[in-house]
Amino acid sequence: MQNLTAKLQKIKFVISDVDGVLTDGSLYYGPDNNLELFKTFNVKDGLGTRLLLENGIQVALLSGRDSAPLRQRIKDLAIPFAQLGKLDKETACFKLMQEAGVSAEETAFIGDDSVDLPAFAVCGLAVAVGDALPYVKENADFVLQTFGGKGAFREFADMLLLAQGKADSYQTAQGFLEKAKKMAQ
pLDDT value at position 174? Predict the structure, then answer.
């Protein structure tokens, strides 16, 4: 755990997969086979995103898919970086790190499936959600308890803020109110 804490203290940038991390991985087909007319996101993950951003930790979303609901969520949460429709997550991570001005050692990636393994390999901290596939968990530095779409991102956000001495922003009323002035979930 001490090694994990040391890694967490260096993190300045969190890149998250979307389907299977911020959602439960379900795909919804609507009339005329229009894919993903809606997505279900967990409000806890939204608040975790805003807490990270308000505490100076940059956030990016990296998804193999692109959809209008995802673009709206990015806008609603004011997430500054995103790569959508990208299956080559290694290259996309390098591009996001460059845009954010951070090193690999300062970057964490949260994923759940095979497509995320290249991102695990190039980021300083690889994190798997609780219901990630077994071989993904084996390649992670840390496995969350929470499943994707059920608050896993928030679990990681809280861990990261705690390790960096910023837990007050979610553990106390006054600390939260100071950060909440700028937030949207």
Answer: 84
